[in-house]
Amino acid sequence: MIKNCLFDWSGTLVDDFLNVYKATALAFNGLGLKAISLNRFRREFKLPYMDFWHKYLPNMTPAEEKVVFLSAWDTLKPSQLFPFVHLTLSVLRGRKINLVLFSSHDQDRLEKEVKLFGLEGFFREINGSVLDKVAAIKSVLARNNFAAEETMFIGDMTHDIEAGHAAGIIACAIVNQEAKFLYETMGKILCAYPDYLINDIRGAVGLSSFARKKRKTKI
Fold first, then answer.
1. How many domains does the chain have?
2. Shortest CA distance to 186 belongs to which of 2, 6, 5, 11?
3. pTM (global) more than 0.90
């Protein structure tokens, strides 16, 4: 049985792909680069996100990226929470499952958005500004004394699944059917061999009762 559940933020709980693209395009323009198309951005964007930025600006530092990206991000209207997030988190908390946010999104913006959506009471920890989830996830488990076999990570990108595998926990891919755009196609994320695949966040409720670490994806 699952006792601990880590959630990615962007593309998992909040539908923010278009805002990330718009902020990136604005940042490119501010840096004197030609903004890439939406389709190209979707093909090329990846985590860790500095891998994407280094394709265009090899010498850019994370601090420099933060300044230009967040300056653009702060000009945009807030993104929208996916349906059923409040309900799902409420059910999981009612089952005494520890909930943790684990995201590459800027820590300050993440905390503000969590508060904006009324989610601040659900999470044991809010971890933002994670540059490399594969490298950072084990420290989250150790700090909270989470047993790997009792912990699941739900995310929408290959990097999320790789992080789950690296920590030896259950790695669940989510392909939100309500999303305007997905960060990655279903085919791409399946290549990372998630243990489970769910169509929206409600699937976490069922998985919390029986999910086990597997070698192959259960669809």
1. 2
2. 11
3. yes
